């Protein structure tokens, strides 16, 4: 199985975590979507990471779709560790929170931070590169605080974000937070419950490849790989 | 069943079309999300339309989730008119194109046009109201052309957007296009195949309530409700 990804793409990280939980090690291909490579656009005309290519060549594009597809093809094997529960009502809650992080947290926190601090720095000017906009970074750093409070609030009555078992909701939240944590922008003093939850998910074996990740010229924040942050 | 919606929210329109295809007539409640009503935020903390409330009070928030939920609870009844096919590979293609219109077309066309031409005009200045930004409107009007070409290209080898049967992909595309068509911004001379497909879906009974819709102070473009546009 091949996974086209980018180390700062949180949606790619979510799929890497899910594959890790399923015991699958894909061949990783780093894709710079802003280059709009013709071969990549042939796989997925939308041109965004992640894109999964099955052994038989079948292409599944986009984090949301890959998550559903992996559950449909490999969910049974996971039994009670299934990432999308079978129960109708539990599915809605898992999908609601997965979508919360993949879309709302992404728009308000992880996308603007990565765009301003990473992509604009690495992209040539003709693709939109340039110096970061500090007002956008400040807004994203303020926004993350209420998301951490929301995580803490959910965990007052639950073991994991969407219920009693770990699910895609936890992996999505952790994937987006891990990207921001690499950049050193998670205020871990904001919510004790959120911090304990993140320490728990961060210590799972599936998380190790993400913690080992270092991007040339852009080392992670000191707390990033620390399990006892 | 209750549906919190907004007439210019394409995601709400997609669900209205899906419910129409299922023969379900929900109680419609128009929600102005920018007012951030406390009762609405209690139903869905993300605070966006559409939100479905089942007869028993169960809440399903967001267009993507409601589509999956309706298929899981009512899909069987539709038999070969099912909007999300059962086949694993066909599901990926339906979800890919549904996501294309709900996210990509939304970001590049329907969201900016509705924001600039409708919401900014109707919202008080303290909620972000004000005069439209013409450069954004021009960019969205340019972007829609390649989406119409893509629809036309898909239909050269298929009966409907994602395959031989009508699916959520068609309803999502039609929902987003219908919002733009209300504003008079669909260049129907761009692609003959796309126009024929839209005429076909526009003539379905489920489409009638959308075509009958008129917003006070903002009448639809002349071609909007015309089945022979």
Average pLDDT of chain A, to the nearest integer?
Answer: 96
Please tally the β strands of chain A and state the result.
Answer: 4
Portion of residues in beta strands of chain A equals: 5-15%
Which sheet architecture does the biggest sheet of chain A show? 4 strands, mixed
Name of the level-1 CATH class of the largest domain in chain A: Mainly Alpha
Helix content of chain A: 40-55%
**CA gyration radius of chain A, whole angstroms:** 17 Å
What's the quaternary structure here?
A: homodimer
The stretches of 5 or more residues of chain A where confidence is low (pLDDT under 50) are none
Number of helices of chain A: 8
Question: Using CB atoms under 8 Å apart, which protein chain pair has the greatest interface?
Answer: A-B, 22 and 22 residues
CATH architecture of the largest domain in chain A: Up-down Bundle
The fold-level CATH name of the largest domain in chain A is Glutathione S-transferase Yfyf (Class Pi), Chain A, domain 2
Strand order of the largest sheet of chain A: 2-1-3-4
How far is it from the N-terminal to the C-terminal residue of chain A, by CA? 34 Å
**How many discrete domains of chain A?**
2
Coarse morphology of chain A: globular
Class inferred from helices and paired strands of chain A: alpha+beta
Order of helical and strand elements of chain A: EHEHEEHHHHHH
Protein name (chains A, B): Glutathione S-transferase
InterPro entries (chains A, B): Glutathione-S-Trfase_C-like, Glutathione-S-Trfase_C_sf, Glutathione_S-Trfase, Glutathione_S-Trfase_N, GST_C, Thioredoxin-like_sf
GO molecular function (chains A, B): glutathione transferase activity
Keywords (chains A, B): Transferase
């Amino acid at each position: 199985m091949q996974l086209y990804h980018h180390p700062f793409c949180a949606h790619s990280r979510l799929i890497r975590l899910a594959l890790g939980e399923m015991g699958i090690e894909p061949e990783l291909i780093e894709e710079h979507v802003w280059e709009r490579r013709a071969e990549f656009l042939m796989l997925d005309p939308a041109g965004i990471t992640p894109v999964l290519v099955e052994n038989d060549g079948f292409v599944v594009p986009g984090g949301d779709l890959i998550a559903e597809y992996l559950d449909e093809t490999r969910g049974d094997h996971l039994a009670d560790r299934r990432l999308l529960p079978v129960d109708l009502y539990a599915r809605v809650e898992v999908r609601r929170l997965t979508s919360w992080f993949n879309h709302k947290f992404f728009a308000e926190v992880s996308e603007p931070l990565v765009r301003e601090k990473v992509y604009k720095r690495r992209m040539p000017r003709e693709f939109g590169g340039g110096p970061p906009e500090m007002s956008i970074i400040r807004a994203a750093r303020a926004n993350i605080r209420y998301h951490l409070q929301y995580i803490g609030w959910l965990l007052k009555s639950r073991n994991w974000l969407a219920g009693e078992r770990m699910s895609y909701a936890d992996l999505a939240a952790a994937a987006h937070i891990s990207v921001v944590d690499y950049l050193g922008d998670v205020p871990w003093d904001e919510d004790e419950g959120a911090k304990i939850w993140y320490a728990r998910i961060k210590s799972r074996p599936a998380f190790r490849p993400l913690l080992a990740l270092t991007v040339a010229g852009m080392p992670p924040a000191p707390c990033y790989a620390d399990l006892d942050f």
